[in-house]
Design a protein that fits this description.
With 146 residues, the protein is mainly α. Helices cover 50% and strands 3% of the residues. The protein has six helices and two strands; from the N terminus they run E-E-H-H-H-H-H-H. Helix 4 runs antiparallel to helix 5. The two termini are 25 Å apart.
Amino acid sequence: MPIGNVLNFTQGFLPDAIGEILLDQAVARVGAFCSDPDSGFLAYDLVGYVARNSGRLEEIGPWTILVADALAGRISVGDVNKFARHMEEFAKRLGDVPKEDLACTDEGGLSRVIDFCCFGFRGAWAPKITKVGALFRNEAIPILDG
């Protein structure tokens, strides 16, 4: 939470892993991340933004799970086949996630986000599924990574 010119994202968590970060230092870190070609920004964040805004994420198909592979999800051919059998449930849970910032989500919406994050099947669960879901609902779905 911002307190003056200080951010503390883990305040209230035990342990307070990150601690306070000065706002100007946080801005410098974000700038460095976004401009470093090895940071992942271009590969993950910018590609997701462009895909959303160009309409490439308007539908869900068997290929959708391959997006997680592009985001270091280690998807196998078997995962694609299994996803094809679970697409409708994925799409339903994704459709239930509010199209709003997670921080502004009410208790019911948060419950639907949790339900989405709990979706998965052998070989593709939270780390892979949330990478895919976050491309569709980047404001609401956190990426639960290994």
